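Just scan this pair:

***
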Amino acid sequence: QVQLVESGGGLVQAGDSLTLSCATSGLAFSSYAMGWFRQGPGKEREFVTAISLSGGRMVYADSVKGRFTMSRDYAKKTVYLQMNSLKPEDTAVYYCAAGWRKAVLSTPSEADYWGQGTQVTVSS
């Protein structure tokens, strides 16, 4: 059974940092591109960042470029999202996603598995 479990969300102030984790189980981790998406109140789910199978390529949404960093740990089968200089507009539920042998996950439709999400709230 494939599981993606996010953790690390919470309530922070603008300018603060937060690190999200997504622990995976039941899948061949090195065969999946991984990504983070988010869904704010009343909004559609949107792309945040993705990392390739090898970990050598990362792609970021313009809105988070320079502030967020994604990484993956093959030994722990876990991906991370380091978020710095957080803004109120970053408030959303953040979802981890996995895509089988995708070059990169850039749209929700490309994901094969999803986590349950973790809430990030940034106060001004």
